[in-house]
Design goal:
alpha+beta, Rossmann fold, SH3 type barrels, six-stranded antiparallel β-barrel, four-stranded mixed sheet, globular, tRNA-uridine 2-sulfurtransferase activity
Length: about 375
């Protein structure tokens, strides 16, 4: 129970379906002021009160579980470490992977519960053999299957998503209104919950040693200086403060972050396009495809952002036992060859694979490149 309208309606539907439901709100910080407040958060004291009121209205027990230490270690510290290494992490992905459907689910099962029910817009269906599969929700505009792509077959066995077939968020709000839930008109949460003022660069400056260095163009020429390479991300346009304009006068974007050299490479927007992605830390959302297990190439669609893509890009994918250069990883390397280039793909982000509405699995992006141009 996050304190939002989606989880409140999901709980109401679970009760109506005859399940024995207990509402749980996760306390993810022992200093609530460090989390976002109002409509911009998801785990504050205000949200906890909203979750309690929803449970009270539904007549179900309500508990607050303290996961603050696990959240700090598995999400916040991971976020800092990834930026320190020059990568761009997705903390919501890590929270789903390590908190909501790992730590929470483990505790729930240990206490005798059968499943974790959430207000995510996604669907679990069974194949012909009864194995669980993760699919997109009916409302593609609100579909959250991307951020759930980290779920494993074992976790999907214990997941309930009552909003899966709801055609729109407007219908969820209308239902909340009919049920007398006070969160019916509460705005959606967004941004990073543990960065209270939304200033990621400023927040990181207190956690990572920032050293000034050079900003280079695609030809290796110095065009400016930065106050810390780790605070930049691929695809970034604002905040570059370049001393020398581009020859064509057009904006420049971050093409690469090199933390070891403490340099940032910028260039024209067209150089952001990549057509090959290599991923590590691979997991499969259900039973893996036979081709994945055998190392054969298979066709699918690839998505690298939670929102903003009306359709994911078509791709050919192969799972290799060893990374390029002979250095293996624990679970191999996923090579995603895109039919149409994508822009602004940064190491540390997540690539999620689909066939139709089904989520096949995901990998953390280790490298992305264009095969049509030389390396920068």
């Amino acid at each position: 129970m996050s304190g939002g309208v989606d989880s409140a309606v999901a709980a109401a539907r679970a009760v109506e379906a005859g399940h024995d439901v207990v509402g749980v709100h996760l306390a993810l910080s022992r200093m609530p002021g460090t989390l976002r407040t109002g409509s911009r958060g998801c785990c504050t004291i205000e949200d906890s009160n909203d979750a309690w009121r929803a449970c009270d209205k539904l007549g179900i027990p309500f508990y607050v579980w303290d996961f603050s230490e696990r959240f700090k270690a598995d999400v916040v510290d991971d976020f800092i470490a990834e930026y320190a290494a020059g990568r761009t992490p997705n903390p919501c992905m890590r929270c789903n992977e390590r908190i909501k459907f790992a730590a929470l689910l483990e505790k729930a099962l240990a206490l005798g519960f059968d499943a974790v029910c959430t207000g995510h817009y996604a669907k679990v269906v069974r194949d012909a053999e009864g194995n669980p599969e993760l699919h997109r929700a009916a409302d593609w505009a609100k579909d959250q299957s991307y951020v759930l792509g980290v779920l494993t077959r074992e976790q999907l066995e214990h997941c309930l998503f009552p909003l899966a077939d709801t055609p729109s968020k407007a219908e969820v709000r209308a239902e909340a209104e009919r049920r007398g839930l006070s969160v019916a008109k509460k705005p959606d949460s967004h941004d990073i919950c543990f960065i209270s003022d939304g200033d990621t660069r400023g927040w990181l400056a207190d956690k990572i040693e920032m050293t000034s260095g050079d900003i280079l163009d695609e030809n290796g020429q110095k065009v400016g200086e930065h106050s810390g390479a780790n605070a930049f991300t691929v695809g970034q346009r604002r905040g570059l403060r370049l001393g020398r304009p581009a020859p064509d006068g057009k904006p420049r974007f971050v093409l690469e972050v090199r933390p070891k050299e403490n340099t940032v490479v910028v260039g024209p927007e067209q150089l952001l396009a990549v057509d090959e992605i290599r991923g590590i830390r691979i997991s499969w959302a259900g039973v893996p495809l036979a081709e994945a297990a055998s190392g054969e190439e298979f066709a699918c669609a690839a998505q690298v952002r939670a929102h903003g893509e009306p359709l994911p890009s078509k791709a050919r994918v192969v799972l290799r036992a060893e990374a390029e250069g002979g250095e293996g990883t624990d679970d191999g390397e996923l090579v995603v060859m895109l039919e149409s280039p994508l822009r602004g793909v940064a190491p540390g982000q997540t690539v999620v694979l689909y066939q139709g509405t089904r989520v096949l699995g995901q990998a953390t992006i280790d490298a992305a490149r264009s095969l049509s141009r030389p390396a920068l």
